[in-house]
Structure of Transglutaminase domain-containing protein:
Amino acid sequence: MDSIVIKVKPDKPQDFYILLNDKDSALIRVSFQLPRLEMLKQAKKYNFADKRAFPAFTYQSPDDPALKRIREEFKLDSVAGSGNEISRMINLMQWVHNIIRHDGNTNNPAIKNAIDIIGICKQEGRAVNCRMMGTVLNECYLAMGFKSRFLTCMPKELKFDDCHVINMVYSNDAQKWIWMDPTFNAYVMDEKGELLGPKEVRERLINGQQLILNPDANWNRKISQTKAKYLETYMAKNLYRMECTAASVYNTETVVAGKQVNYIQLVPLGGLNQEGSKSENPAKNSYTTYVTNNPDLFWAKP
């Protein structure tokens, strides 16, 4: 009912009370926070000499029976089409975007693979979050013989309400990783129209270089995305630190008793977490997170 404007300085938060009916009160603190893009620019530095060991990145063969089933059941050869490598990658991403509806607040299904995720969405008329959409696209890429990872993009804070998952798929033609986001039907280009990968997008955001978002980027085929909204605001927040599973395989995160899942996290020198962690539960998945400051190791070619 009422509004207030408070100017705060970086080192001086402002406290005040909201008072209702001269009885009920709530203490409010307004504190300064850098814009997310400025925060990302302060996270530019890495340590290329960091040699801490972590498991090697591996990619499941398209000859795996589960991946062959995905390729055949969803007719992915027809979905991908007969164009060049990049066009097939884009077609697969757009297909996932079009057959699955996104809802970031929904609970994940218990079984997390492309066949079951797509199946439960059709059966229940439900949506899934970006992680599940990234899981589906990742398995489709692997099934088609493309080396791929789903990439969890996170803010600086260790506790947060929102992050985002995209895919990075390796182009043999371009000899680099390519950014594909099935949630927003998005990929990113430079001023020459060449597709970029997550590493390049992050660097260009920090350095103020040209970035072009594909014009048909959208959310649920309802809300168009702009470079300012999607890249300079939303992804600027979520490109502070990034994480992948070491093994890019079918059914990666479905809970199975005794299963071990390893995560590799790329953290800048200013990051709040500089050490790995381990969680062991014989009745469920056990998780180990390895931290590296070395982008060359994290973005290693397959």
About this structure: The mean pLDDT is 96. DSSP finds nine helices and 15 strands in the chain. The radius of gyration is 21 Å.
